[in-house]
Each structure stands twice: as C-alpha cells, then as structure tokens.
Amino acid sequence: MLTGKQKSYLRGLANTRNALFQVGKDGLSYNLYKTIEDSLEAHELVKVSVLKTCTEDFKELAFDLAMNTHSEVVQTIGRTVVLYRKSKEQKIQLP
Fold first, then answer.
1. Lateral strand order in the sheet of 80-84
2. pTM for the whole thing?
3. Which superfamily is assigned to 4-84 in CATH?
4. Cβ-based neighbour number of residue 74 at 10 Å
5. Which secondary structure element, helix H or strand E, spans residue 74, and what is its range?
6. Domain ranges of the chain
7. What UniProt keywords apply to this chain's record, in alphabetical order (predicted)?
8. Which of 9, 22, 51, 75 is paired with 36 by a 20 to 30 Å CA distance?
9. pLDDT above 90 (res 93)
C-alpha cells in the first residue's frame, strides 16, 4: 500500500511520461492485462489512456486494471490511469 507521499512522488514521475497503452471500444482483455503486467515488471510505472470509444465506466476500468495486474492506481486524471507495481529489480526508489 502506497502512502500519500509516495503517490505524490510517483505522480511527479508519471507527469513526464507518455501513455504506453490505450483502451478502446474493445475494452479490457486478457492480452491487454498480460502486456501491462509485463510493462509494469519492466518499468514499474505505467500510464494507460482510455479512449472515448471505450464504453466501460472509467472508475471501474481503473479498478479492474489494478486488480488484474496486481498493481496500485497512483492517479486517475482525465481519461488516463497511472499504475504502479514494484518489480523484482526495484527501479524506482520511493521516499
């Protein structure tokens, strides 16, 4: 579980990053979860953009992404979700 200070630090890091994934009209799928999990292991911090064509509720989608990728939602802003999961090599040093 991340503290407020850690989430604030991660939001600052995510600010300069581009979204690596987009969720569109097809919504969430097993392949998307797997790809995001692999990316979390490689980068620890991942941004996911949700397109307007996606019919799922945004808050539910963010929750489902976090649950199925075993990560935490750092931030939801606009239609973007920022996820964090510590990798085995711990690339980001949290305060």
1. 21-23, 45-50, 80-84, 72-77
2. 0.93
3. YhbY-like (3.30.110.60)
4. 22
5. strand 72-77
6. 4-84
7. RNA-binding
8. 9
9. no
